[in-house]
Please model this.
Amino acid sequence: MAIQTKRDMFERELQKLYHAEIEILDLHSDLAAAADSDEIRAIFSGHEGDTVEQIDRIEAIFATLDSEPRERGSPIMEGLLAEKDEFVEEVEDVELRELDVLSIGMINERLEITLLDRLLLLAEGLDLPDDVVSRLETNRTEAKTALEKMQSHLDKQRVGHDQHASDRRE
Model:
């Protein structure tokens, strides 16, 4: 697909986002299974419903654009999936594995936010219906919320680790 217009690029990025969201369903399931703590499992399991709704919104955007929903793979997303497949299962230490799980989840949400930001920027220059933009914005808000939950958990671990290190020094 040769990209010659903003609309061409918008459609390509929408296909990449669609592919990413479908892959995220499996990714989150795998990350939840690899997690040891109930809290981390809940972060990924609880996001499944949001991901299904995000896929539905993307399919609605395709319909609004009179286009068939099509996936387009992304080397970045494929690399993230390979990272999960190769590294998460080989980490035996629970604390380190959970760090890996959270890190991969956070990279994924940042990728999703970046794709959505690009789509929103392109949408500004196109004469698209308002519901297209609002669906993209809703997906971005949900991805940002998921990222914040993961970051919050990581921050709690950091504070606990810092406290533990301080206690050992005393």
